Amino acid sequence: MLDDTLWQSIVLGVLQGLTEFLPISSSAHLILLPWLLGWKPMGLTFDVALHAGTLLAVLVYFRRDLFDLIRDLLTWLRARISPQSQHEGKQVSAGLALAVLTGTVPAAVVAALAGREIEYYMRSPFVTVFTLTGFGLLLWLADRRGRHLRSIADVSVLDGLIVGAAQTLALVPGVSRSGITISAALFLGLKRPDSARFSFLLGTPIILLAAMKHGYEIWRDIDPGFSATPFILGIIISFLSGFLCIKYFLRFLQNRTYLPFVVYRWLLACCILALLLRQ
Prior knowledge:
By secondary structure, the chain is an all-alpha fold.
């Protein structure tokens, strides 16, 4: 039989894989579920393991997109260094790659300067109630007011910077990285599936940087009695659930709106507030 730690790894792995990509906030759920069930925190090491699993899901699912972005960015750089080698059909893809890189900068800078402080002071169920509600409203407005005309191929460097600036708000639990970046992309006129696709591509570098940073800190201070089994299980489960979530979420958005996720955020906020007021 599986012990409690392994069951907790499975449940949190599924939760991370689903909520990382849906606009409902993975951090809120990873804070709230252990709080509701009375589980002891599994610590930063386990959080990093779960994020490594969802990072792997993005890398595998979007492997062709990422390969094309890197290839076209290198082609663009080569054309700038040597004009004779310029390739005319690569401008759009290079623009998307530059948008992703540019959009990574704001969140990376803010996380490096104040990430720990923001997480420490904002890690509260009351804050989560506010962010679930407020940023759920923002997603609803973006979905209703957005023109839904632009594709991901139309994304510019300025678009990347705007969506990247919005991504910095995701450091606050309950905001949802995918939720705030999708909202910004919708306000900029992207179609629903393209807004989600750009959100996932934009999140890849920042999730990778965070995993590398925390992974190094863990490796440096690792306990000799460290048991890897719960963490490996968490990585596998979050990878599988994350991969399936990306696949079916993008399919869902082909002919549906973001309204179900807005309603879910509001209902969850109401449930949390009711529990807090009863204490």
